[in-house]
Every structure is written in structure tokens, then in C-alpha cells.
Amino acid sequence: MKILVCIKQVPGSNNVEVDPVTGVLKRSGIQSKMNPYDLYGIETALSLTEKYGGSVECITMGPPQSKSVIVEAVCMGAEKGTVLSDRKFAGADVLATAYTISQGIRKCGDFDIIICGKQTTDGDTAQVGAEVAEYLDIPNVSNVLSVDEVADGKVTVTASLDNKTVKMSVELPCLISMENDINTPRLPSYKVKQNIKDDAVKFLSFADFDDQNSYHYGLSGSATQVERIFPPEKNTEKYAVMGTSEEQAGKLCDLVCKLKMI
Length: 262
What we know:
The chain is α/β, with parallel strands linked by helices and 262 residues long. It contains six helices and eleven strands. It is globular.
């Protein structure tokens, strides 16, 4: 069984600047880490191969320094990984991102199960996984709480819906997006990191893809465009309400009405 895990490098801090022209995050020069949600996907994949046999690979899209999350995944137990990196991919919305990843997956080979984290901490859209599945023309299940069984060409999963939990069987190949806090991701091995091979990480660019239409990638391939994005204003104004309980209640009521909170 071949499993591919989609991972992403995200800012390690919420203090990230926004490009006023393009409306995208300025990722250069800031500390980064692996998207926390993806760690649960990696652990799920490794646990499945320990139970049923097979291999785990990872794929990510981003600047060259995104290699670090592939290395981290390999140190956790993945065999190898691929970085999709090209300036033509920059500024992509969820649609262009999903298309780019789907093209990269096609170049990496065939997989029985593709696993994604529920969402990323920088975009928080939770849309890329399902869109990748659509581009690959395979079934997908979101909000997966557990992978219960893999047998007879199907995977049985338990997934969370809005108001109930369901168990379903999906034919392979398929894509599943894992919920957070469903397992305990293992720590990367320092010993593996010291002996990691050069061919554990490979890079693919626009030139490697079958679709050579540059208007399908990056800002050009994005169906949506950010009109305006800005950090929330910090309000440090404080109010002190003195008096008896009745007086405080009255003053608080007047205050929230004045601030148009009710």
C-alpha cells in the first residue's frame, strides 16, 4: 500500500506581514514550522503502514526552504518527499494550489491513499484536500476521526459531520482529510536526520509538469483575488466601573449600549 501525505510549511508566528499589493503573506525571513494539522496525517499514514505494510511519501508546495518539512517527515518515518517549488506557483489561492498539488502528485506516481490535514494554520480554508481529490478524480472524505480498516480495495473510516459521527467505506484510491488531536504524532528521529540521504527529497518545478499552461498556476490561475487584508486593530482601552452591584450593573448596561455591543 502506497500512501502520500500532503504537508505544508506555515509561519511559526502570528506576527506576519501582508503584501499590500498582492494581498498574500510575506513568508520570507520569518521562522516557519510544519502545519500542526499535518502531523496527525503523517502519524495516521505511518500507523497504517505499520499495520498493513507499504510505504509513506510526502509532498509540499512552497519556496525551496519548504524542504525542511519534508526532512522532518522523513525523520518521523516517511521514506521520501517532494517539494513543488517555482515562482510561477506563488500567490496561488486554494484552487490554483490544489491544481498545482494535483499535477505534482501525478508526476510522483500512483497512490492508494492520499492524506491531508484538516486545514492549515495560515489559510484556514480546509478546502485544498477536497479540491485536490476533484482534480485527481478520486473520492474524498473530510473530517476523518480514524481509519478503521483497509481491506478488499476499500478503506473504512469514521468521520465527523456537523451533528453526528458516521462510518463509511471508500474505494481506493481515495483522499482523506484528518481531524486534529486524533492521535499523538511521533517525534522526529535525530539519528535518522544525521543519516538522511540526498535523494530523500526531490524538487519539481513548472517545467516538470505535463500541463505547461502557466495561467493555471499561481496568481494567474487563481479564481479568487484578495481585495484587502489587514491585521486586526489592537484595542487597549479599559473601563473601570465603581459603585454598588446595582450601580455597576446599570453602568455596564449603559456602556455596552454605547459601544453598540447589544
